[in-house]
Hints:
- By secondary structure, this protein is α+β, with helices and mostly antiparallel strands.
- The chain contains 14 helices and eleven strands.
- A hairpin with a 5-residue loop joins strand 7 and strand 8.
Amino acid sequence: xxxxxxxxxxxxxxxxxxxxxxxxxxxxxxxxxxxxxxxxxxxxxxxxxxxxxxxxxxxxxxxxxxxxxxxxxxxxxxxxxxxxxxxxxxxxxxxxxxxxxxxxxxxxxxxxxxxxxxxxxxxxxxxxxxxxxxxxxxxxxxxxxxxxxxxxxxxxxxxxxxxxxxxxxxxxxxxxxxxxxxxxxxxxxxxxxxxxxxxxxxxxxxxxxxxxxxxxxxxxxxxxxxxxxxxxxxxxxxxxxxxxxxxxxxxxxxxxxxxxxxxxxxxxxxxxxxxxxxxxxxxxxxxxxxxxxxxxxxxxxxxxxxxxxxxxxxxxxxxxxxxxxxxxxxxxxxxxxxxxxxxxxxxxxxxxxxxxxxxxxxxxxxxxxxxxxxxxxxxxxxxxxxxxxxxxxxxxxxxxxxxxxxxxxxxxxxxxxxxxxxxxxxxxxxxxxxxxxxxxxxxxxxxxxxxxx
Length: 453
């Protein structure tokens, strides 16, 4: 009983450390900024809000708590040897990388770079430095890299499971510039999870000793143990024009789990043979970049799904709580007729719905090409297109151009969009639709669409 009470007291102290550390709050603020950016982009493109950045933040916080509990439980058997100085060092590298790209907000990159730095420092054991540089060198040399690589691997497995669970729910529809300059519909799947970890570390205490010996730490566990709070961020960003969000989430989930398993094997090898550590650190970065490259290659080769066929209108998204959702219309389906009239443009759909403003009948083709017939009363104040967002056509005034974003873009999303629009008007360059030829210049809003993890 005394041991249980001691463990619970240590956990309470670690929880207090988590609340006092700024990193967990920094992670939540970054996530809020990313979701806020997504909502602003939706308003610019569709003049409606499909998601609530507040609700998205809470859902990811809860998902992060669940992941943190599972990974913390696994870490009981892995063990960890890290100090508060080491946690600050990892977060400093992470925030530095965030200045260049949001997708670098990943433990694999921070740990990989620190592993390479530790390897280089170990090649020059006489290098000590002076002042704060000497302190940084000491902290980097003391990091238990195999244990940190194992932790990054387990977190990627957890991330893959979270992507399978929640990834598609946060997908946002966008209008992309296609291969030949034609606008196509697509989705950006973007989600980050703040994960509060409670790691078991060896410590010299007068309390109880663990009844088992974790993988990392060795004889140090004979002196006792304690808990330490280590908040981190996991997440991913993908774009797709050839798959539905759920299908893309399944693909990304499988790859992230596979990446985590491979990294776990490499980390265990580095614990068995220390010179292999730098190989595992390099592999963590290279394989992660390989996931990004593979996703880009697949998108370049895939045929766009959200383009209008010659005999209907392709549905890109459905507004939550709209008549279209009640009718059962789904993204990727095609509206062939409205009130018995074939529709091939948004104007024709609008005119057909106005033929009977109190009631509508739709013929919709599903993914198998089979027709389903839907009908519903229309009430005053409801969306003029029943709440469907259609794939872009040649008259779409807005386009989205992809570019990696950094922390600066997150802090000023409105200014970025305005400056991009002014630049497009000054230069007159970039993609122009038919509406642009009539004096309307498409808005070029830069976004990031690369795998994170």
